[in-house]
Amino acid sequence: MNDLNPYEPIPFDEETWRQMPDFLSNLPEPVCLHVWGDETTGAAEREAARLAGLLAEHFPDKLSYRLLPRRINYPYYPVIGIMAGTVESSTDLGLRVIGLPIGFQMTSLIAAIQAASFRGQTLEPRSRLKLHRLMTHAAEDIGIEVLTSAEDEAGAVVAKAAFGAAAATERIRTFLIVTDYFPEAAQRYSAAYLPHTVINKRVHFNGVLEEHELVRQIERAVKRERPVTGES
Fold this sequence. Notes:
38% of the residues lie in helices and 23% in strands. The chain is built from seven helices and nine strands; from the N terminus they run H-E-H-E-E-E-H-H-E-H-E-H-E-E-H-E.
């Protein structure tokens, strides 16, 4: 992992493709990848389009993709939206990967695809029930930002739970930010350690968040209005 360059093509060797069917062949519902960016602007945006195309080519019954122009409200590119459905009809569940998912964050992208296809059933039933009850009475929606990097294996663990929460609950959105491309995002939150999770810009947590702990941190965000910091 140490030799990964965020501006070189994502390596897809034979071993990678041998493993992919284990994760993508049995999806219960198709998934469409929406890629926002400009292929003529830079290598990362061009590679994101290539990645989505490769996945759709290898799993045509399960995956499709759309290439979309940059949007004025996105500060960083590329942005990959993981939608339930197809190109013709897709549902936005609030799952985003910001930056190219290199290294361990390819695992995060696969987790997002699974979460969207299973509509959040990648979470334990108890977690889904608790999130549903929380968000039924919450005064505001929840936005989860997971700051991570190519070499951050723990970030993929947090991403799996966070994407599951967004897919399971209509009022939660999850943004995975690959800081290899956007170090200023980590600097903005003074995130000296990755993964760094921010919930509604006021609850911060350093380190691994297992599913039950993520639910607890979401509950804190719902109930508290002043900044709260947690440490792993």
